[in-house]
Amino acid sequence: MSRFALVVALLACSACASTSATKKDAAPEAAAEPAPAEAAPAEAAPAEEAPAAQSARNLNLADIPFAPFNPEQPEGIHVYPITGNPQAGAFNAIARFPAGYRSPLHSHTANYTGIAMSEGMVHGSTADAAEPLPKWSHWYQPAGEPHVDACVSEEPCYMLGFFDGAIDMLPAEAPAAEPKVRVTRGDAIQWVEVKAGVQMAVINGNPKEGAFQTLFQFPAGMTTNIHTHSAAFTGALLSGAHQRGPSADELVSLTEGAVWSEPAGSAHMEKCGSESSCIFAGAMNGPLDTEAVELTPAAE
Questions:
Q1: CATH code for 3-183?
Q2: Sign of the C-alpha dihedral, residues 84, 8, 130, 60?
Q3: Which of 21, 52, 166, 172 is the most buried (most CB within 10 A)?
């Protein structure tokens, strides 16, 4: 499948790491000032199959091999599938919207969770929705419900998408009479402490019972032991400087915008930088087991 189908789906949809990351800085945050919006095509382009996750992958934003959904329009939407096959079933991906992008009103046959990784993202239920959401805002978009996505910024906007089924994009002529989408603004997140200062804000699902999507917040300097999870884990760093890897000697330095995939049963550890807390989005395809996770706070 061509990555372009994915993009379309994902972003047309949102309209709706292979190697360890280097220590490059991530791209700067998008400015929040609105820019003129241009209409986006509703047709989906052929997409390339996402690579199968055989081992842990960590990629900083600057190193993500984004690809345009339409080779004849390289200035358009770009996407990178982190895990899964967008044409066959559930998948996770990061999308980059060009400044001024606006999708047509559309829907998907799959439910999906979207997370604004930068300022300037718009997700609304009407064709004229224009209010940008703060960074870290997230939404759960039910299948079959019309919506739009846009980037009202002078810089590209980045969005993380977790889909529970294959991607498609179905044009819609009218908004839903009673939208069921759940949107949480980034400045209104309700954090709940789960263990030794680590906090979570669940977006969808139940971490104790099965697949879920959530935001995690690690205190500055927090370090875990080497551990595994019985579920596969896809993540993206929203804020802070973070390190992760199979051991303390093999940690990869990640900056804002980085993404990763950790297969089920893969040994790894996490370490948040000492300057500020680390916030990252995560999706697991099964319950969160933390019994084997040991947390060490920053030294006083």
A1: 2.60.120.10
A2: positive
A3: 21
